[in-house]
Amino acid sequence: MNFSDYIQKIDRRYIFIILAIAVILPLLFPLGLPTFTTPPVLSLYKHIDEAAGTDDRAVFMDFAQSPSTLPELYPMDLAILRHCFLRDIKVLTISYYPQGAAIMQMAISEVKEDFPDVKQDVDYCNFGFRNFALRVPITLGMGDNIAEAVETNAAGRRLENLPIMEKLKNYDNIQVCMEISGAAPGIIYINYARARYGVDVAIGVTAVSAADNYPYLQTGQLVGLLGGLKGAAEYEELVETFANNDIPYSEKKAQNLSWRNQQYELSKVPYKFKQARIGMDAQAVAHVLIIIFIIIGNIGYFIEKRQDKNKYVK
Amino acid sequence: MNKLYKILFFLVIVSLCFNLSLSAAPKIVPNDEPIRDLKISDFPHDDGGGLVITWEPLPKEKRILEYRVFRGFTPDSLFRIGKIPVNPKTGVVADTMKYTNAGYTFFVDATSPAKLKHEPGQRKGSNAEKILYREYPRDIKVYAPMLEHYRILTVIPADKYLYNSRMKVKTQIDTLEDGTVDTTSSTYAGLKLRQFKYILTKLKPGKEYYYAVQAVNKYRDRSPLSKIVSATPVDNPPEKLKEFYSVAYTDTKEMKFEWSLPFFKTDQKQFNIYLYDANGEKHKIFSRATAYPYTSQSNATVSFEEIKNKFEPFNSQNMQWYRFNISLKDRQDMETLAKDEPIPAEITTTEVLPEPPEHFTVRDNPDDKGDKNLIYFGKPYVTIPKISYNDDFTELLVNYDIKDNELFKVKHAIFEVDGVSEKEYVLDRKVEFDVDPDNLPNEIKTRFICYDHGLELPEDYEVIHRFSYNERLQVVDIEPPKGANYSVQVLRMNKTGGGPQANVWRFPKELTYVEREYPDKVDYEEVVYRGISDYSIEDNILYTSTYYLVGTSEEERAYYTTALYLKQLEKNRKELKKQIQSLKDKKSQAEDEEQKTALDQQIMELTSKLEDVPPVVKEANAKKSNKARMKLLQKKHNNDVRSFRYFLRKTDGKGHFIDTPIYTNADGQEYFKPKPNWFKNKETITLIAMLIFGVLVFFMIRAARKGKNLYIRPIAGIQEIDNAIGRATEMGRPILFVPGTSGISDVATLAGLAILGKVAKKAAEFETRILVPVRNYIVLPIAQEIVKEAHYEAGRPDTFDKNSVFYITNAQFAFVSGVNGIMVREQTATNFYMGMFWAESLLMTETGNMTGAIQIAGTDAITQLPFFITTCDYTLIGEELYAASAYLSKQPMILGTLKAQDYMKFLIVVSVVLGTILSTLKLTFFMKWFPAK
Amino acid sequence: MMETIGIWVAAFLTLSMFSFLYKDNPFYKFAEHLFVGASMGYFIPYTFFNVFIPYAYNPLFLRHNYWLIIPFVIGLGYWFRFSNNLGWLSRYPIAFSMGIVGMGVPMSIHAQILVQMRTMMLPLTNINLILIFIGTVSILLYFFFSKAHEGLYGKFTSVGIWFMMVGFGASFGYTVMARLSLLIGRLQFLLGDWLGLIK
Amino acid sequence: MKRTIPLLIVMILGMMFVVHTFVPHKISQDFYNWYQTWLKVMVSFAVILGVGSLLMVHTNKIKRKAPAWGYSWLTILALVGTSAAGFIWGIEDGTPYMWIFENVNAPLGATMFSLLAFYMASAAYKAFRARSMEATLLLIAAIIVMLGRVSIGNAITEWIPDITQWILNVPNLAAKRAIKLGVGLGMTATSLKIILGIERTYLGGGKQ
What we know:
The complex is a heterotetramer.
Chain A lengths: L2 H7 L2 H17 L10 H11 L8 E7 L5 H17 L3 E6 L2 H15 L11 E6 L5 H7 L4 H5 L23 E8 L5 H11 L3 E5 L1 H12 L5 E4 H14 L9 H5 L1 H7 L11 H39 L1
Parallel strand pairs in A: 1-2, 1-4, 2-3, 4-5, 5-6
Chain C lengths: L1 H17 L7 H37 L6 H8 L14 H8 L2 H20 L6 H16 L8 H44 L5
Helix pairs in contact in C: 1-2, 1-7, 6-7
Chain D lengths: L3 H19 L3 H39 L5 H20 L6 H32 L5 H17 L1 H6 L2 H11 L1 H25 L13
Helix pairs in contact in D: 1-2, 2-3, 3-4, 5-7, 7-8
């Protein structure tokens, strides 16, 4: 049995075990592979980052999630909230799904653990759960007056009395309307908030439904889109390199890979803020592995073919 | 020894896992405490029919699955009325949970539980003992006596109410103070519970209700019941309207008011507008009933003259002194003013107003079942959602969206940037321009070329959008065009609505400034709403009020209510006549002139009630049977409630609005009722294509029957079938055939089964065993018969084994696990996969590769083809699967259809090539014959 | 307690399923047979409570919609499927359910043929559109069964095959990520929920 | 009676449905609703076929003492156990029935599904051979798209994501469109054969 035979006949089980290891190891010991940002993610990041340090601009987040989409969408929730807290951007959150409200609470409290200075109702405001039937009236009403449309925060306090709402009046003060959703997202904001009040809308969706939403990006109805784990990983990375150092995004710095790598010290970050990248590490390793499998298999095949040819000539 | 090591190793691993998992095990706390902090409060702004219950949620360690809410009108028997499901893993992080019991909520229907049952698992010694019941049962003995403790609304299918209800007369005998006996009888419509769609309840104001909450965890353990709280719903004044604007137009001598609609719509009666004079005194100058249950108008025009009628000293010269306010009044006549301080009017002229929407037209919406009117107006418009540059700013990409309507159907659009114009022959929603990077444009003009069948568009009509490049964000900002703050409200009124005084228009839709068309939904009326007046436990029957409404085209009364039954009608007439007679008797005895005229008046009224009946009702009343009568009335009723007239109002929401007149078409028709259509015009091309195909099939089958030789080219996979079966025979191992994983109505399954017949026959001839696992149980017997028949045909009925065609299960992955098991255990030499497959395809074919089987697949599932192609030896791609089944069958009928299919395909290719050439030459008519979606 | 047992059961069954990658073994057989039985067992009450009760029992017995006796009786025909003499009774419900394929004739002409045709007729304004056009036409001709793939025509149809192969390769590559996500999900369950090694 | 009437039912209903697609009238909608109502009643009985088939297969195995017949007991036990749990305690969340679903059915299904990742790897290794022009194209397209989906692609060259997008938008689109059209035509033809009574496979064999 020569080398080519060996390669050709290698038992599948070795492939399986190599793949399993290749997926398990990055999960246990994060690699910190570089992430490359795609335009829809970058555009969203830049839009949100524009509001840094201002007190009359806020990011509005709608959590339309359910537990089944948690693995893909939850890292997005954390990354965006972290971005806002790091860069002193005001955040307003709402959910029209009871389960989404629970996830919203969970995400806020999990991110807030690392930011003792960030204060509820000053730096962020959780509007809490609203009945789904109120979605259109509230979305429309916010164009005129947020405090009147939403009325109270999750704790039942009137919005007009809250410090955060002092300069946040209507959609003019909303930097981005972000909906993170496992179902058909964004439509309500595109149709009402965008069409009528010209608000910038962005969405976070699962990888499967990302393809369906690209047309909205092309027509400009969405300013950004996070698709699945990959989108979340890209956003996480942007937050890590720029927001974590409290610097605004800059094209030059982004293109400077060595500078980027300096900023990119994955190990210091808690697991929750790198889970998307860890998942993507595993994906990348597995993808490369499969490609290597294909190449090795073909090398074996060509050697064998040449040997066969030689045999024939003889 | 070796074995011992293995066992030891295994034990070490298991114990390690066990230790790890123990430390990872989630903490769970038993669900043995009641929920705390249960509070109850009144629901704001309502009619006294709502209460809100709040409580503190339990920690997530308790793995709560749902919170159940119980309600009763006495504290000793509470019924389950609802639940709030919770995700047991994440729990509820908020501080409070809320359950709102407001408005009409479900009470009981025919599918409610049969008997009254206690909630299970009520803990002994807790205060929950024996007072908790499950949902309200459908047992009349239980629910009927409760009806009086709530407000009731029933929903009845119209047919059941009109044709199947039973008339019941109930006579009440009262002895009056003066000793005379007064009998009043009223008529009801009797219905069994099963005839109702369902019955709804709402709380009664001023009555005390009791609530309690119980938490149920993931293992169905119930927490002890919370304490029982009680409250009395209170009728509240309506909410404050959030916005109110008043504008005085001095040239037309009128005022326009606009306000925002309240959120709680159920309890509202009218909007009243007040004028405050210089002394601060309040005068009602306008009032309008709300359109409940439909959306009400949110604006009004009041002329100075009308104001003067209500408030005599009114002088428009003093307008700057007047202040205005609006109130909302509910049905209990409670009133709330919108503004704390009345506001002055904006004084202006109608010059500030835009032009009203032009070319406003209403007609029946085509191609529907008769539930839409089509409304359109205005000239075509284009929206520009996005403009972007390429990297070096030499190209400008504009995304656009055309908004047009029946009158102006846009054929082509011409875009112009910096004097360069681009004609869009195919409206593909994007257009590109070459631009000068040093001198970026800031304006785009659009002109339209419309089809001839509508109106002619003025030559100079164009839409202009202005934009600029935002350096900071690196995007193009597009300015909102002029008039973007105006929207168009569609207002409608049916034949029973209002009359001139009431002027209650419904407001079904607000369209943005870009919209040019709106199909207005006019639903068929399928249910009626009635209250319950009485019940009879013995007869198991509920009684509702009896009346029915038809429109009259009269000014004074917009609608006429009539009785439901002929007998009732007769009875009513008799009573009326009797009353008239008694009045007449009285009159003849009366001496006083004044009394006589008063009596005359009464007689007149009653006589007109008796005789002044709309013609339709008269006609209906002459019918012999109830059914015939109601049929006629129902027809009239449906016609009246579904015929609408329309006008449009263009408004900025701040009191600047302008109306179109009510639309009347060329025939003078004002009311429009949607017509059900008999043919979908859009599908004409489908019909033609279908007919062409049908004719091809007919001729090809005829040709095939006549024995004409129909050539079919060889298909690779089919020719390999014999070899593959031969291989299995040589190896002495069985064949596996999976006829897809879909059902019998899937075309691919049928093709797969047809191929199964041929494969099974060959296998029988070669005496090779064939295994057919089936996922769909309807396919199973068919597959069995096919294989059986194949054995008969091959002349080997003895070798047929019924157990070789078998069902596994219909769960997708369980099925795969079974098939994989078979492949490995039976060591099948050849595997066929023919039919529809989903994600399971690769799981099977790779296992087949592991066992070293030859594999032939065929599927029309585009998503799975890549996996079959890569892992199988031969694959029938898409249509080849159908062709293969025809090819193998050799039946003239089937071959004929395959041939027809081929010719059809040829036609398709020819028309696609033709269409592409034409459209490339900017002739798009051919392409537009085909449907876009 | 039930939760911990649940995680252990799930972990055991997950590992048993994975063991098939090594070879067929009793653990896999156990998991496979359990899965088959439990999946069918899940299906029965599910159909009973979600289909039979609301659509057959309630309308007929509680709402007295007596017309439904007819489909009720026809539906019972399914039960005779395995009988040798009365098996034909089951053809009635099957035939009834097949009726809807009639809708398939115009619907697939409309959605799968005419609409597709229109999208193919876009003007050829750039190279990509021309490539799509050539690809589509050549693949359509590949599926033309009345002419053998020979000569120039054969060459043209093989262009169609190339297009298809590139398409299939792309689909394969595109799906890898989604499938790997599933695997990562399972491994996260084993490593996280069960063993607590991550998080 | 045994074959002709069912065939007639299919033909008549089939024709009616053809007409239904062209007629938007309310009557046509009502016909469709009627059909749905009746169909729902009928299909609720079909499940018995599945149970019957499964029990027959496994009791048969046990009777014949077929290989691994002992496991058939397990299947029957799981079947009876799960459905009994459903009938006794109901099928809401938190019942034993749902416990079985969450801890047996769901992980088993998910695991079986996740095996696909392994099989894709082995299929890539074993089957992606540049044997011919076609196979080479397939292999190259797959590699490029795989690279384009992860960050490594960008690291190699910026072109990879663009090429990926091009492959998905151009050749892939052409292939999908054309196959879909062919399949659509085949489906139309088969549906037509069914309502014309040419295709009778679904009635099962037998000459009765």
